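User: Just a sanity check before I run the rest of the batch. Below are the structure tokens for the first item. I only need the designed sequence back.
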């Protein structure tokens, strides 16, 4: 029998967007490393999800609903008996059309879920950690779109830019409490919700040209960074970004290679 101790042994963690591609990989990696995890997402995708082992508890939470966020975060912390790491991963995917046609409704939805939802859940997590008095880790999932735009994605990109600065602002304000706040910026990651778009010839060609590793990443690539940011070893890192994008943002004019 193995007596190996996990990298996150007995850590108490909450992950939003847990039924999605990246969130699910983070929940599974955390549980595999010995953490106890509350997996949050909208009720419907959560009801379809199954989890390995007995370390994961599913809890519905709509990131567009302030009251529900307060209740669910409180319930999660009570269930776990405290909170060591919080991962803000839940978000609406891009695709709101051209800027000229961007509606007030879509703007409000994307800023509401992707930025305000991140703020509200992070604030609830930070308050729980501050009350405990022994620090903690807050990990936001931004995007390369936190720094670089792309066509037809103004609301998504603006929200992800906000997540980058929110993360730095939290790092500044929470350092004294020992709450370390960092962002992961994924590049193109092939998740089930992407429905095979990375196999379509046009996008596959763009990924080959613009990504140094010439392929989309896997959710597990992001989970590996999320494990690192939650473990004790990453104790002098806050306000930072880990970019996991296969070299996309290191390069311009990749097609000239
Ligand atoms: N896949 C990529 O290429 C990529 C690239 C950069 C950043 N990201 C970011 O990674 C994170 C995870 O994305 P993913 O690729 O796994 O996508 P995904 O669509 O598989 O997962 C997103 C999850 O967020 C949940 N969600 C959406 N609206 C919600 C709401 N109102 N309340 C609660 N949950 C809600 C969805 O139900 C879904 O399970 C997101 O923040 C996304 O912006 C993804």
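Assistant: Here's the designed sequence for the first item:
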């Amino acid at each position: 029998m193995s007596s190996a101790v996990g990298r996150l042994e007995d850590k108490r963690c909450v992950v939003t967007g847990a039924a999605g591609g990246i969130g699910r990989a983070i929940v599974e990696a955390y549980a595999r490393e010995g953490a106890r995890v509350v997996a949050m997402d909208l009720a419907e995708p959560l009801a379809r999800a199954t989890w390995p082992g007995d370390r994961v508890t599913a809890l519905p939470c709509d990131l567009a609903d302030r009251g529900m966020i307060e209740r669910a975060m409180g319930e999660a912390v009570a269930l776990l008996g405290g909170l060591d790491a919080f991962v803000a991963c839940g978000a609406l995917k891009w695709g709101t059309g051209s800027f000229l046609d961007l509606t007030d409704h879509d703007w409000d939805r994307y800023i509401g879920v992707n930025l305000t939802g991140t703020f509200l859940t992070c604030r609830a997590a930070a308050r729980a950690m501050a009350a405990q008095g022994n620090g903690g880790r807050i990990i936001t999932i931004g995007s390369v779109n936190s720094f670089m735009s792309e066509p037809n994605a103004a609301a998504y990109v603006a929200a992800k830019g906000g997540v980058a600065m929110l993360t730095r602002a939290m790092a500044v304000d929470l350092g004294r409490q020992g709450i370390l706040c960092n962002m992961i910026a994924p590049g193109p990651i092939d998740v089930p919700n992407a429905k095979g778009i990375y196999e379509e010839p046009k996008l596959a060609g763009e990924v080959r040209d613009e990504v140094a590793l010439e392929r989309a990443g896997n959710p597990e690539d992001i989970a590996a960074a999320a494990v690192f940011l939650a473990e004790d070893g990453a104790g002098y890192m806050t306000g930072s970004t880990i970019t996991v994008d296969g070299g996309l943002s290191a390069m311009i004019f990749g097609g000239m290679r």
